[in-house]
Amino acid sequence: MYDHIDLILTKGDKKFTVDVKARRTGTDKSKGFDDLWTVVEFKNTMGDSGWLYSKSDYIVFERKEDFVFADTTQLRNMCEDIVDVTKRVASFRNANYKVWGRSYQGKKDLISRIEMCKIIELDKTFIWLKNLDKNV
Predict the structure, then answer these.
(1) What is the CA radius of gyration of the chain?
(2) So what's the pLDDT on residue 131?
(3) CA dist 106 to 47, 94, 103, Å?
(4) Average pLDDT of the residues of the chain
(5) Quick one: pLDDT at residue 104?
(6) What's the number of domains the chain is made of?
(7) Which residues pair with 120 in a beta bridge?
């Protein structure tokens, strides 16, 4: 809950920790998954540091055909730069580069929506394709 480390991955002589984020629906859940936008969490439901402040090396976003690995520090710095945390909106659908929370449910979270292309543009981001061939 506090370290936000889901897995330790090893490839060759490299080892790194990851916090994996499952695919998410967009602002209209009836339209299914949205791989163009994602959610970032500044504060969790208890008001503590959200997963942007993870101790993991990478935050990993699942998409239909791949996983996007974003360096946690780079992602956090970018989000602090591009999200206006002083602009709180009343609806999740309006939380693009602004913040929203579920205080109406007694929660203290603070989240925003950002475009996945911004994450992909970070120089330490890399992508792992999913292997869709079950015979491999």
Answers:
(1) 15
(2) 80
(3) 11, 20, 5
(4) 91
(5) 79
(6) 1
(7) none
Q: What is the helix (H) or strand (E) element at residue 78, kind and residue range? A: helix 72-82
For residue 83, pLDDT beyond 80: yes
Q: Is the pLDDT of residue 133 over 80?
A: no
Q: 43, 50 in Cβ contact below 8 A?
A: yes
CA-CA distances (angstroms) from residue 117 to 30, 36, 93, 125, 132? 23, 7, 19, 11, 23
Global pTM reads 0.88
**54 three-class SS:** coil
Provide the residue range defining the domain that includes 61.
7-24+32-129
Spatial strand order of the sheet with 14-21 comes to: 7-11, 14-21, 58-62, 66-71, 126-129
> Is 134 part of any domain?
no
For the segment 90-132, what is each residue's pLDDT rounded down to a tens digit?
A: 988 999 999 999 877 788 899 999 999 999 999 999 999 998 6
Is 1 a member of any domain? Answer: no
What's the token pair of residue 119? 């994450």
18 within domain boundaries: yes
Q: Three-state DSSP class for 77?
A: helix
